[in-house]
């Protein structure tokens, strides 16, 4: 077994520091502690099929290899990027023969989400009969990328991105192997860990690059930025990161936390998100979560959208930032949104009820004979400009879908609705 502090200089630093025991794995104590899911499996001396879901560089491959060693299983690694059906058949056949000889197999499939649905189905019989213990690794949300049948036979374990303490622990180990400290001042050391963005492998690759620099003078953050190639934040605008960050932006706005909303929008833009997607989502927010509490919100949203399309990047992003500030500080109401949902539900429940005849036009003699338009009162001819007639279908009780809140402009709408209600009640009383 390779020692943690292997000083063989012919291999990359990240490989030389790869843990040789599960106790050396950092940042995943919630899975590996004695009372955690993997800890309990190991204590029982058995291994179930699992999906390891987590960001790059958090230790998925290392954990799988060490699990196989701990429970005495043959470790068979495959990458879904480079493997196909023929490779899987060879592995399954070898695992079958191994099982007949009394030995088990842990099949580790990296980036398992890359296999298509039919290929994923191919795992099922071998997982079910115990030919292999399947450990799949993925950076993508398994509920989106993996077959339900496969997921039902496996436990999904979520690995965390490495936090500041875990990354610092890796840097200390690296410096121990290298035999000297990295040429960084405290601020640059913090900036290095921030640049790694929770990816331990990336951090160690940067550390190996920095170890070749002179020990003096130590780098400050500006010098560090010049010395290394800063990578883009982890964000896949076609997958779960896209949905997570837009959800964070939307909910921050709903919670009137303008600063948090600005941060999430900046994260999305830094990750390469299409600004027009953000503009569309902000416009949706204006009508869904602000509505008539501030009727100007949707006007501001459309204006910001238009400004971005006219200016482009980077100037146009300022219009989106201005819109985020406006929406974040505006009064909130979903009353119009809920009113529409209620009306849609009622329409589905009541089917094809006809409008009351008195509000139907009667362009033909037959329609007049059937009573279309009979008794209709032209509202503008009444003293208040309000007849109070019934406009719901006959046989359907009057419903109140729209319930404005006492915030923003909807406070004025509350007064208007109360006025019409009083007139309606008065007219109904006079008609009795």
Q: Can you walk through the features of this model?
A:
This protein folds into 4 domains: 28-158, Rossmann fold (3-Layer(aba) Sandwich); 164-230; 239-332, Zinc Finger, Delta Prime, domain 3 (Up-down Bundle), CATH 1.20.272.10; 353-430, no CATH class. The protein has helices spanning 13-16, 29-32, 37-43, 60-71, 85-100, 117-121, 124-128, 142-145, 148-151, 164-178, 186-196, 200-210, 221-227, 240-254, 258-270, 275-290, 296-311, 316-329, 335-350, 365-369, 410-431, and strands spanning 50-53, 74-79, 105-110, 133-138, 155-158. The chain has a 5-stranded parallel sheet with strand order 2-3-4-1-5, sandwiched between helices. With 432 residues, the protein is of the alpha/beta class. It has 21 helices and 5 strands. The N and C termini lie far apart (95 Å). It comes from Magnetospirillum fulvum MGU-K5. Keywords: ATP-binding, DNA replication, Nucleotide-binding. This is Replication-associated recombination protein A. Belongs to the AAA ATPase family. RarA/MGS1/WRNIP1 subfamily. DNA-dependent ATPase that plays important roles in cellular responses to stalled DNA replication processes.
Topology, pairings included?
Blueprint: H1 13-16, H2 29-32, H3 37-43, E1 50-53, H4 60-71, E2 74-79, H5 85-100, E3 105-110, H6 117-121, H7 124-128, E4 133-138, H8 142-145, H9 148-151, E5 155-158, H10 164-178, H11 186-196, H12 200-210, H13 221-227, H14 240-254, H15 258-270, H16 275-290, H17 296-311, H18 316-329, H19 335-350, H20 365-369, H21 410-431
Parallel strand pairs: 1-4, 1-5, 2-3, 3-4
Helix pairs in contact: 10-12, 11-12, 11-13, 14-15, 14-16, 15-18, 16-17, 16-18, 17-18
């Amino acid at each position: 077994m390779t020692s943690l502090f292997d000083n063989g200089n012919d291999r990359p630093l990240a490989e030389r520091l790869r843990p040789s025991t599960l106790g050396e794995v950092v940042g995943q104590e919630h899975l590996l502690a004695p009372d955690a899911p993997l800890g309990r499996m190991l204590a029982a001396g058995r291994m179930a099929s699992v999906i390891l879901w987590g960001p790059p560089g958090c230790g998925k491959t290392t954990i799988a290899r060490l699990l196989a060693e701990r429970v005495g299983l043959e470790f068979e690694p495959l990458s879904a990027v480079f493997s196909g059906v023929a490779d899987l058949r060879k592995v399954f056949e070898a695992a079958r023969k191994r099982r007949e000889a009394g030995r088990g197999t842990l099949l580790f499939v990296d980036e398992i989400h890359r296999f298509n649905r039919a290929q994923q189905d191919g795992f099922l019989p071998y997982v079910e009969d115990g030919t292999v213990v399947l450990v799949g690794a993925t950076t993508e949300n398994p509920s989106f990328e993996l077959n339900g049948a496969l997921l039902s036979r496996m436990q999904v374990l979520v690995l965390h991105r490495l936090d500041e303490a875990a990354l610092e622990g890796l840097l200390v180990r690296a410096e121990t192997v290298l035999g000297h400290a990295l040429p960084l001042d405290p601020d640059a050391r913090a900036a290095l860990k921030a640049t790694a963005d929770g990816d331990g492998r990336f951090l160690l690759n940067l550390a190996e690059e920095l170890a070749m620099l002179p020990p003096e003078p130590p780098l400050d953050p500006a010098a560090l930025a010049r010395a290394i190639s800063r990578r883009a934040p982890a964000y896949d605008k076609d997958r779960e990161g896209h949905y997570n960050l837009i959800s964070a932006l939307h909910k921050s706005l709903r919670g009137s936390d303008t600063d948090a909303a600005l941060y999430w929008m900046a994260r999305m833009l830094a990750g390469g998100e299409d600004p027009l997607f953000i503009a569309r989502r902000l416009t949706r927010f204006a009508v869904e979560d602000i509505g008539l509490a501030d009727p100007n919100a949707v006007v501001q949203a459309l204006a910001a959208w238009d400004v971005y399309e006219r200016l482009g990047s980077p100037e146009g992003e300022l219009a989106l930032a201005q819109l985020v500030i406006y929406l974040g500080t505006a009064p909130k109401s979903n009353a119009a949104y809920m009113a529409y949902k209620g009306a849609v539900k009622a329409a589905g429940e009541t089917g094809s009820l006809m409008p009351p005849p008195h509000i139907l036009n009667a362009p033909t003699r037959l329609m007049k004979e059937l009573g279309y338009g009979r008794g209709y009162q032209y509202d503008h001819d009444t003293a208040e400009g309000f007849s109070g007639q019934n406009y719901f279908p006959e046989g359907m009780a009057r419903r109140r879908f729209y319930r404005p809140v006492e915030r923003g402009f909807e406070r004025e709408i509350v007064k208007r609705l109360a006025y019409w209600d009083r007139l309606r009640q008065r007219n109904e009383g006079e008609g009795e």
